[in-house]
Amino acid sequence: MLDAGAKFAPGGADDILAQIVHGAPDPNRQVEYVTVVRSVCAAGAITKGIELGVEIAQRAEKVTGEPTMFVTSATGNYGGVSWITGSADIKTLESSQQKIAADTKFGEFVDKSVKGVYVEAPDVTQTLIYRRIV
To answer: Tens digit of pLDDT for each residue in 31-54?
Structure first.
């Protein structure tokens, strides 16, 4: 399947392993889009980064109404963490993103809480959106 899908993704597959800390995949839930926010815990802040990561996931779920998993990297960057939210379709994805952007309490919480917890570099913390291609 990777070979067949290679024409849709320049540079090949990007594969990492992660350990689920919060949430769980639902095999019965139809997901067409997945939003992933990746970051890396700052030196000396891995425990705080994991604790805060779970709270961010829970708050995101409350704001968007969509389940959000929080995972730690088993491969890749040491101290790597990700928040993963699946959406049934593009309309749901857009609605979730608009809800997060409009929720000032969520933004204030993140602004206040993450300083010094995650690496502060634009090339480290990224938001990625994946689309399922069948």
So the answer is: 999 999 999 999 999 999 999 999
User: What is the C-alpha separation between 134 and 115, in angstroms, rounded?
Assistant: 40
Where residue 38 sits, what CATH number does that domain have?
Answer: 3.30.70.100
Domain span at residue 83 reads 2-131
Taking the model in full, what pTM does it have? Answer: 0.86
CA distance 118 to 134: 35
Alpha-carbon torsion, ordered 59, 65, 66, 72, to 10 deg:
10
Element (H, E) at 107: helix 104-113
Phi, psi of 40 (to 5 degrees): -135, 135
Number of structural domains (the chain) is 1
